[in-house]
TrEMBL record:
<dbReference type="InterPro" id="IPR011881">
    <property type="entry name" value="PaaA"/>
</dbReference>
<dbReference type="GO" id="GO:0097266">
    <property type="term" value="F:phenylacetyl-CoA 1,2-epoxidase activity"/>
</dbReference>
<dbReference type="InterPro" id="IPR052703">
    <property type="entry name" value="Aromatic_CoA_ox/epox"/>
</dbReference>
<dbReference type="InterPro" id="IPR007814">
    <property type="entry name" value="PaaA_PaaC"/>
</dbReference>
<dbReference type="GO" id="GO:0010124">
    <property type="term" value="P:phenylacetate catabolic process"/>
</dbReference>
<dbReference type="InterPro" id="IPR012347">
    <property type="entry name" value="Ferritin-like"/>
</dbReference>
<protein>
    <submittedName>
        <fullName>Ring-1,2-phenylacetyl-CoA epoxidase subunit PaaA</fullName>
    </submittedName>
</protein>
<dbReference type="Pfam" id="PF05138">
    <property type="entry name" value="PaaA_PaaC"/>
</dbReference>
<dbReference type="InterPro" id="IPR009078">
    <property type="entry name" value="Ferritin-like_SF"/>
</dbReference>
<dbReference type="GO" id="GO:0005829">
    <property type="term" value="C:cytosol"/>
</dbReference>
Amino acid sequence: MTATAEPDLERLFEHTIERDQRIEPRDWLPEGYRKTMIRQIAQHAHSEIIGMQPEGNWITRAPSLRRKAILLAKVQDEAGHGLYLYSAAETLGADRADLTEKLISGRQKYSSIFNYPTLTFADVGVIGWLVDGAAICNQVPLCRSSYGPYARAMIRICKEESFHQRQGYELLMTMMRGTEAQRAMVQDAVNRWWWPSLMMFGPPDAESPNTAQSMAWKVKRHTNDELRQRFVDMSVPQAKALGVTLPDPELKWNEERQHHNFGPIDWDEFKQILKGNGPCNAQRIAHRRKAHEDGAWVREAAAAYAAKQEGRA
Ligand SMILES: [Fe+2]
Ligand SMILES: [Fe+2]
């Protein structure tokens, strides 16, 4: 590439974004955009993979064959989401082994929500309803992300996430029709997961350093606070239909804003978990590291086989 060609390429990139068209792997793109996309996609991929652990915890103890089959399918979907996303990151020149290394050495993040424990089977339902529900709010707009491979991966992921949300809600509905003890179990799980779910949308807009640039590049379509509000407004009638109380005394409809007001979020708790001090941070990473090490022989065998095939050719 010559020095004089660069401004033209940059204009072409900006023009593509302006016209709401997709940036594809063959296109020239600014280094900042590449880095931002790799960071966002890697963090998303890691979240899918680490997110298998809290619910995977309940597969062997699911209360019926039907619940076990549903949960297995759901956790397996999350593995698939991780794989589509690592592949999307590879189209930007990222190396999958390097991304995994960064995850298990703590240099890249995953969603903090997965650092909370799953104490009862009701947690499986609440994760589906609230955590996958929040993920859908975040991810539906990403189907229009400016980076083509990411946007296309998100379309498929969102379809599967809506199954996750519904299986969770249906599980909770069933438990709410059950015994007093089951209803108490659901309420307890809602109490523990509500606030962490609101934190999933990230820090308030005023403290979100990457938002402005990501909005300009159309890799992000709405701010953290907009999406959080949308999620709250969506969840209130669902909680009512379910018969549970959301643990926020300040939660109420604001006629003027046409939105629900809600109480302050404990951002100190969020920051502590980001720093690695959540209840399960160490356990999640240790488990992922062990799975990676246990799989070393598979990678070695695959590489040896590929080398042999190449030798024959
Ligand atoms: Fe997922
Ligand atoms: Fe999911």
